[in-house]
Amino acid sequence: MITINTVALYVTDQERSRRFYVDVLGFEVRADSDMGGMGRWLEVAPPGSPTAFVLADAAGFDRKDRVGSSADITLRSDDVHALHRDLTARGVTVTEPEKQDWGTFLTVTDPDGHRLLVRG
């Protein structure tokens, strides 16, 4: 069986991104290691999730062109409306919840412009 381990998000400031994912979204740091010339290997994930994001230094990986557009990601929340209230109160760029036939969702934008769809 194959599972997804990590999804790379290329970022301009790993510490700023760590604060966003950990302090604002409630993720946990799974790994934080020195990679030498490529910088820092920084994995964050929602508690209990088998899949993590690698907040990869775009400059170290020579991927500056992929900042803010490196992945299409969908997250899940038990209560999209409560999440919206919480994130709005924290000053996070987030869309209003939108109801579709397939579910209710909103979009969160991280500090580098990555747009994360959150489905209820």
From TrEMBL:
<dbReference type="InterPro" id="IPR037523">
    <property type="entry name" value="VOC_core"/>
</dbReference>
<dbReference type="GO" id="GO:0016829">
    <property type="term" value="F:lyase activity"/>
</dbReference>
<dbReference type="InterPro" id="IPR029068">
    <property type="entry name" value="Glyas_Bleomycin-R_OHBP_Dase"/>
</dbReference>
<keyword id="KW-0456">Lyase</keyword>
<dbReference type="Pfam" id="PF00903">
    <property type="entry name" value="Glyoxalase"/>
</dbReference>
<feature type="domain" description="VOC">
    <location>
        <begin position="3"/>
        <end position="120"/>
    </location>
</feature>
<dbReference type="InterPro" id="IPR004360">
    <property type="entry name" value="Glyas_Fos-R_dOase_dom"/>
</dbReference>
<protein>
    <submittedName>
        <fullName>Lactoylglutathione lyase</fullName>
    </submittedName>
</protein>
